[in-house]
């Protein structure tokens, strides 16, 4: 579907690769208004199924961007764990940098970087905490080691050494051995991003990509109505 032009071999193995010479030519049939699903969730489901079927690794990995109260942005990868008409859900530590930024400013951006299919999906919306029962159900579905790890780590805080982290893990693993219930960390849980817009980007030849954006016409809960607009590439 896409082809990356060969990068000339570097004479000196230590010389850096020049990203300016890397250029992919996208050959796809494109994305037309009449082929779009009726809402962004169904369109997302279609693309997500196609991307997963293509064998792309971690198709549910997405970049979450937040901004603090002063408008300074930060980004990181997380995993999408659920999506439906209510929004896109990921799990994290509410006391992490992203968690604190969202508490101060709930507006976030999600980006799915599906490069091998020359696609990206960009969601803009507001993040809200999921119900504690939803968090508990997901938390206890995780492997035991991941549950203990979440309990052992005050995500995003500065720590003196790796040894301190390993010691905290060992202490909690002894307290909650395999087969016992690990308590859900008080600061850990799900965030649902309720979209205000969702853009579907399909790479095409000559940089004339297709960009179709669903924009919410009515507020969430007031009946889902979406307007579709085409953006210049
Ligand atoms: C592929 C991948 C998946 C990740 N998934 C998650 C996740 O689902 N939740 C999470 O809190 N961090 C996840 N991380 C770690 C985050 O990128 C990040 O390091 C962490 O959440 C702390 O971010 P913050 O300090 O900006 O809040 C993942 C990292 C990668 C590379």
From TrEMBL:
Pfam families: PNP_phzG_C, PNPOx_N
Pyridoxamine 5'-phosphate oxidase N-terminal domain location: 53-171
Keyword Flavoprotein: yes
Binding site residues for substrate: 23-26, 81, 138, 142, 146, 207-209
Residues in Pyridoxine 5'-phosphate oxidase dimerisation C-terminal domain copies: 188-233
Complex formation: Homodimer.
Protein name per UniProt: Pyridoxine/pyridoxamine 5'-phosphate oxidase
Source organism of the structure: Streptomyces mobaraensis (Streptoverticillium mobaraense)
